[in-house]
Amino acid sequence: MDNRILIEVCVDNAESALSAQKGGAHRLELCSALSEGGLSPSKGLMEYIMSHVKIPVYVLIRPRNGDFLYSRAEFEIIKSDIFSAKVAGASGIVVGMLNSDGTVDTCRMKEVIQMCHPLPVTFHRAFDMVVDPFDALEKIINLGCSRILTSGLQTTASAGSALISKLNESAAGRIIIMPGSGINEKNFLELLEVTGCIEFHLSASTDSQSKMKYQNTILSHVFSPTYKTASQYKIEEICRLAGFYNV
Prior knowledge:
Elements: E1 6-11, H1 14-23, E2 27-30, H2 43-52, E3 57-60, H3 72-88, E4 92-95, H4 106-116, E5 121-123, H5 133-143, E6 147-150, H6 161-171, E7 176-179, H7 188-195, E8 199-202, E9 205-209, E10 226-230, H8 232-243
Parallel strand pairs: 1-2, 1-8, 2-3, 3-4, 4-5, 5-6, 6-7
Antiparallel strand pairs: 9-10
């Protein structure tokens, strides 16, 4: 690991992926349904993004919204989606599974990590639902994951920054601790200083207006006239700030 500050942007559509690349993002996390916390992307979206961006693309594998305790059927879907992501050309896989008692599901994680090889694996924000973050940290390190995405068990990385800092200290370079959730150009430098982390995860989202000339306003609560996309300008600003710390 070096001291270069890396910015990962989470995207769930082609427009956002291209904006993130133009804004200077170092890596993408590709998913669908960011409004649900992110779900596995479609095969078509993966293939399009892989062929239209030059920066590394990590693919989120999450078969449904809600918790991270999965049935046998859902586990089979996870493995199938990992295979599809590898075939599509993913640079890394983002996945996480828990037991009902809030501990890391090490048995299933071992299987998927073997399946992901040689791609690096990020343990996603399932980490923020564990009962003991330091026990989970050691288990995830022993599994061989490359990084942990976390908000410090709080709603935002800013609120969880104290725990993130402690996790990063306990990790001691054995794994990357990557803060995520609510990171923007206003709080980025403070989070960098407080946590000591070198990778950061954000969506840099902004509202985009539908180009439809006709709108059925009766159904606007279902089919919103606005949707979220990554802001190239927000990403440019955060990457500019990160650049001051890069060698």
